[in-house]
Design goal:
With 359 residues, the chain is an alpha/beta fold. It folds into two domains: 10-136 and 318-354, Alpha-Beta Complex (Quinone Oxidoreductase, Chain A, domain 1); 145-293, NAD(P)-binding Rossmann-like Domain (Rossmann fold, 3-Layer(aba) Sandwich). Helices cover 24% and strands 24% of the residues. The chain has ten helices and 15 strands. It starts with 14 loop residues before the first strand and ends in a 12-residue tail after the last strand. The structure holds NADP nicotinamide-adenine-dinucleotide phosphate. GO terms for molecular function: oxidoreductase activity, acting on the CH-CH group of donors, NAD or NADP as acceptor.
């Protein structure tokens, strides 16, 4: 069904759009086949129970983990079912409220999925606060899930300290770019790995001591030279061949922060590193984690990230896809092709471009 053209006030419409899973992809997401748009009867204040709010989505976060949620396999969250609303985190605006803690016009974050409109229990919604030097969209980036992932991964698994030599893969992405900068703040020397010369140049602007394009035909030799002193901390967003290369350059007792393995998410036959025995030979501490593990510490972590942002110690970029929810499927497919520098978002509602000045 064709998407409805958005009017300024969503509740003046008769329907709103959401996106549901149509087919499980065998390998990469197939735009036009994997997901389908759905029209739903409009929701209004009359649909709310006490303690609930009506949230209009402004921005949708696109995350590599979404590909894993489409597999019918055991993981840290249940798979999205065929015909079910696609899961996702958003920044939204309260358009009706029967909860004393929220008023119409408040900006919030929540997890309603890929939908223009949703009813949320007030306890499932977080009021969005914009710190000095910050902006609304930071709530899904540097101060949201990806910034927090970088923070906890570096703090608790990387245990990064002054003088460490830290390598970050997927370094120009949302998580990686914050991970690189936290390592610098902590006094480490940092090598960032990314997929284009433009991204490499940005990593140097961020303060990385060295950055390499892993698509360079001479990457192997350059990586060997750049890691001649061997790696203390490897923050891995990518897995596959890059993880294998990092294992071969690990220092004894190196810490490997297993954050993600994006190179394998779309593969029908994922592969692990052939030299995994380096974990034994070098006594590597290799640990995976999910950011939700540290949920109780989010407020403290956000405070420190916001402080670094205010002080200009943290920089960030975002790539915002226009075109509303109908653009989300192609955007997610493109995430695995490196379309983004920094955080990838879909602008679901275009007319809120002035949102920053109203907070
Ligand atoms: N453990 C957790 O709780 C947690 C939370 C959030 C994210 N993560 C993980 O962290 C990683 C980064 O997530 P993000 O949200 O920050 O995404 P992101 O890094 O902003 O975007 C993904 C990037 O991955 C790179 N990439 C794609 N395919 C690749 C391949 N085959 N080899 C190497 N690089 C590839 C692309 O950049 P290039 O142009 O450089 O290739 C792309 O821009 C993902 O693996 C994600 O699953 C984990």
């Amino acid at each position: 069904m064709a998407p409805v053209k958005r009017k300024t006030n969503i509740m003046a419409q008769s329907t709103y759009t959401s996106v549901v899973l149509a087919q499980r992809p065998k390998a990469t997401i197939v735009p036009g086949e994997t997901f389908t748009l759905k029209q739903n009867p409009i929701l209004t204040e009359a649909d709310l129970k006490d303690g609930q709010v009506l949230v209009e989505t402004l921005y949708l976060s696109l995350d590599p983990a979404m590909r894993g949620w489409l597999n019918d396999a055991r993981s840290y969250v249940p798979p999205v079912q065929i015909g079910e609303l696609m899961r996702g985190f958003v920044i939204g605006k309260i358009v009706a409220s029967k909860a004393s803690s929220f008023s119409v016009g408040n900006y919030v974050t929540c997890s309603p999925g890929w939908t223009e409109l949703s009813i949320q229990d007030a306890k499932a919604v977080t009021l969005l606060e914009v710190p000095p030097n910050g902006k609304v969209t930071d709530a899904l980036g540097v101060l949201g899930g990806t910034g927090l992932t970088a923070y906890f991964g570096m703090k608790y698994i990387g245990e990064v300290k002054p003088g460490d030599f830290v390598v970050v893969s997927g370094a120009a992405g949302a998580t990686g770019s914050v991970a690189c900068q936290i390592a610098k703040i902590k006094g480490a020397t940092v090598l960032g790995l990314a997929g284009s010369d433009e991204k490499v140049a940005w990593l140097k602007e961020l303060g990385c001591d060295e950055a390499l394009n892993y698509k360079d035909p001479e990457f192997r030799e350059k990586f060997k030279a750049a890691t001649k002193d061997l790696i203390d901390v490897f923050f891995d967003n990518v897995g596959g061949e890059i993880l294998e290369a990092a294992l071969s350059r690990a220092k004894p007792h190196a810490r490997f922060v297993m954050c993600g393995a994006i190179s394998q998410y779309n593969s029908a036959t994922p592969v692990g590193p052939k030299n995994i025995s380096m974990v034994i030979a070098m006594r590597i501490k290799m640990q995976g984690f999910i950011v939700f593990d540290y949920i109780k510490e989010y407020p403290e972590a956000r405070k420190e990230l916001a402080q670094w942002l205010a002080e200009g110690k943290l920089q960030r970029k975002e790539t915002i896809i226009k075109g509303g929810l109908k653009a989300a499927e192609q955007g997610l497919a493109d995430l695995y092709n490196g379309i983004n520098t920094g955080k990838l978002l879909v602008e679901v509602k275009a007319e809120d471009a002035g949102v920053e000045s109203r907070l």
